[in-house]
Each structure stands twice: as structure tokens, then as C-alpha cells.
Amino acid sequence: MKKGTVLNSEISSVISRLGHTDTLVVCDAGLPVPRSTTRVDMALTQGVPSFMQVLEVVTAEMQVEAAILAAEIKQHNPQLHETLLSHIEQLQQHQGNTIEIRYTTHEQFKQQTADSQAVIRSGECSPYANIILCAGVTF
């Protein structure tokens, strides 16, 4: 049995194939996923698993150098935005690097998901609970 943090074989496989600057999306239950992009659907029911639960597991295994958020999260989901910023700060300390945070419009965010290696869908049902993670290197 795999000893690492990620037991889901699809997520583990996607993360292991990421190269420097490749992107991976963790999203809420409502974000449209382009047909051309690999979809890993973790959603069981509303709120299960939560966006943060999925993100915490993914970032425990993935080296992150940048994160992209929809700017609308600041106004429409400020509590989650603060939680995300706190998580990214902790991740920076754990990884020993600076993680650049970029904001874009939600429409541009949706377009950028088409360039991602995969979209991991959570059961989250709160607005703008989406992030694009840009892979870094561990050396």
C-alpha cells in the first residue's frame, strides 16, 4: 500500500507527472471543466469533501511556486480567501520558498483551466472556491 499522503490513484498520478510550471486546478462543485482537460471528480455531496480538504492533501504532495485565484473571491468569499492566504503562507514556510499569488477575473480563470494538466473537483458549494496551482521544483 502507498505510504504517501495521497491515496487517490488519479491524483497521485497527475501530481507525479507534473513538470516545472505545469498547472493543476482544485475547484468547487460548480466550475465548468473543459472537455479537453482531465477531470478528477472527488465530489460526493454538497460540501463533501470541502475545497480546503482537497487542497491540503494536494499541496502536501505537490511543490507549488505560484497560485492563481479569481479576484472576485476577495469580495464574494472573503473568509475562504483569508483561509487560502493563511494556507499558502504555511505552505511557503514548509517548502522554504515564496509562492507568488496572482489574481485574474473569473472568466479568465475558467479559460486558463483548459491549459491545466487536470482539474480536481471538490464538493465545495461556496463562491469562487477555485485555485490554479503552478508546479515548482524541489531543488
TrEMBL record:
GO biological process: D-ribose catabolic process
Location relative to the cell: Cytoplasm
Signal sequence coordinates: none
Residues annotated for substrate binding in this entry: D28, H106, Y128, A129, N130
EC number: 5.4.99.62
Keyword Isomerase attributed: yes
Matching InterPro entries: D-ribose_pyranase (IPR023064), RbsD-like_sf (IPR023750), RbsD_FucU (IPR007721)
Pathway of action: Carbohydrate metabolism; D-ribose degradation; D-ribose 5-phosphate from beta-D-ribopyranose: step 1/2
Entry annotation: catalytic residues: H20
Class of the enzyme per the UniProt entry, highest EC level: isomerase
GO CC annotation: cytosol
Coiled coil residues, start to end: none
Database matches in SUPFAM superfamilies: RbsD-like
One term of GO molecular function: D-ribose pyranase activity
Keywords: Carbohydrate metabolism, Cytoplasm, Isomerase
Record carries keyword Coiled coil: no
Chief place where the protein resides: cytoplasm
Catalytic activity, reaction form: beta-D-ribopyranose = beta-D-ribofuranose
Assembly with partners or alone: Homodecamer.
Family: Belongs to the RbsD / FucU family. RbsD subfamily.
Known function: Catalyzes the interconversion of beta-pyran and beta-furan forms of D-ribose.
Protein name, entry field: D-ribose pyranase
Organism for this UniProt entry: Enterobacter hormaechei subsp. hoffmannii
Organism classification: Bacteria, Pseudomonadati, Pseudomonadota, Gammaproteobacteria, Enterobacterales
Gene: rbsD
